[in-house]
Amino acid sequence: MRSAKDATLLAVTGPRTTGGRSSFAMAGPTMLNSLPKCARSTETLAAFRKQLKTHLFRLCYMP
């Protein structure tokens, strides 16, 4: 399900249990929403992978 405000964001509902926060159904959309918009809005898998790699590199090696 997509967010009404931004079509690139996934709507994440709250977990019903305390263990639900660590489930893949909760963690996957949360992680995808934390990516920059340029990575979320790519058209192809190859472009997404390139943007993801760039984003992760910047997180690890840029101050």
UniProtKB/TrEMBL annotation:
Domain of life, source organism: Eukaryota
Q: What is this protein called?
A: Uncharacterized protein
Its ancestry begins with: Eukaryota, Metazoa, Spiralia, Lophotrochozoa, Annelida
